[in-house]
Each structure stands twice: as structure tokens, then as C-alpha cells.
Write a structure and sequence with these properties.
This protein is an alpha+beta fold and 111 residues long. It has one domain. The protein is built from two helices and seven strands, in the order αβββββββα. A seven-stranded antiparallel β-sheet has the order 1-2-3-4-5-6-7, covered by helices on one side. The relative contact order is 0.17.
């Protein structure tokens, strides 16, 4: 996932979502020359805001409910999770968290 072009990243997110029972719809919300914000609408009436910067590699995934992050992951300061039980916490990851992995965690949380 590291250092994909914006087009590659957007296609990757759409492809991952199309295989997920948690996805309803996806849209590019905002984008610039080197960054993009994608919103994935989920079946439980929450959504995931996905940010990617092609130049810096900064990436974040945030599941939102009632305008608050309820679950997330990002690489600001190194890859880490914001767990469902306490989304303000940072649980360090020993590897890059892909959107596929994040989506699988959401699917597990929905069960």
C-alpha cells in the first residue's frame, strides 16, 4: 500500500470495499493534487473516512458515528490502532495497517 498513486489508492479502496458485506457505497469526498479523502458508507449507518497523501504516505482510516471517531488506524507517528473500546488510545502496530485489514476488523466488530 505504501506510496501508491492517488488513482491506485482509490481503486484499491473501492476494490476492497466491493468484496465486503459491510460496505454500502463509496465516494471521493475531497481531493487535491497529492491527497484524497474517500468516504465509505457502511451497512450499520456509520461511515469510514479514509485519508491518503501520496507524497508523505500519511494514511488514516476513521470509522465515524454521530460525528465522532469510534474506531480507527493511522500512521501519524507510526502505525497504530484507535480501538473500539477506547478510540482515543493508541495501540502501536508492528506492521503497516492496510485498508483490507482495517475493513476486516470492522466486519468483525459488526458481528
Amino acid at each position: 500500500m505504501a506510496r501508491m498513486s492517488l488513482d491506485e489508492f482509490e481503486r484499491y479502496v473501492i476494490s476492497a470495499g466491493s468484496d465486503s458485506p459491510a460496505f454500502k457505497n463509496v465516494a471521493v469526498i475531497r481531493s487535491g493534487l497529492m491527497w484524497s479523502i474517500i468516504r465509505a458508507y457502511l451497512v450499520n449507518e456509520t461511515f469510514v473516512d479514509i485519508f491518503y497523501n501520496q507524497v508523505t504516505g500519511q494514511t488514516s482510516f476513521a470509522q465515524i458515528h454521530d460525528n465522532c471517531r469510534v474506531f480507527g488506524a493511522d500512521n501519524k507517528g507510526g502505525w497504530h490502532w484507535h480501538p473500539l473500546e477506547d478510540p482515543l488510545r493508541h495501540l502501536v502496530s508492528d506492521h503497516e495497517i492496510t485498508f483490507d485489514e482495517f475493513l476486516k476488523a470492522i466486519e468483525k466488530n459488526l458481528k
